[in-house]
């Protein structure tokens, strides 16, 4: 059975030495006895709050006691801490400190591992963006991937679909980037335009950017060239009506009739 030491709510005096008021006391035969008279005066107080430290100190201490205080509102005694031997507390603190160092090193290793994993995923996401939107500039794809995949951000890159690089999730990340960086969306929000209305206004503009990014740069250039009328260069002869250059005779024909 555990020894129980009480933190009194009002002043108590030791029934044996008459010393008081007491910060802590035992009850022996219903009367308060100070720690020195109860042969517990050499113990040190360890407040509650660190379960590992309390457990280790209790296990290393040959003599220990539970410290309680009455909660008037709840009508019961509540645990406040322990009284343990000083050498046991020192040993427990050393063990917990060693554990803290181990945990710190583990956290540092985990942080390095997570950072490397985040970089790999951002690179994979950027490659997926370039696959779906080959016209998107490489640097822009990297920026979108880094923003969407930031750990703890809750953005689309951290969702299950985003982690699987699903097309819908990747497209949503690209669309969000275009909305904020390539349109007046933020300005509309600052002007008080409701979010849904602002998105509806800019949907066509965003779709146009996405459509241009879905084409390869070579295809976009070819389409642009196909739409331009042909013009002769400054050094290029313009074809004449006889198949030769304008102002020159056709091959095999002289300037005069025979």
Automatic annotation (TrEMBL):
InterPro entries: DUF2293. It comes from the Bacteria. Residues 129-214 form the DUF2293 domain. Residues 219-258 are annotated as: Disordered. Residues 219-228 have a biased composition (Basic and acidic residues). This is DUF2293 domain-containing protein. It comes from Streptomyces pristinaespiralis (strain ATCC 25486 / DSM 40338 / CBS 914.69 / JCM 4507 / KCC S-0507 / NBRC 13074 / NRRL 2958 / 5647). The lineage of its organism: Bacteria, Bacillati, Actinomycetota, Actinomycetes, Kitasatosporales.
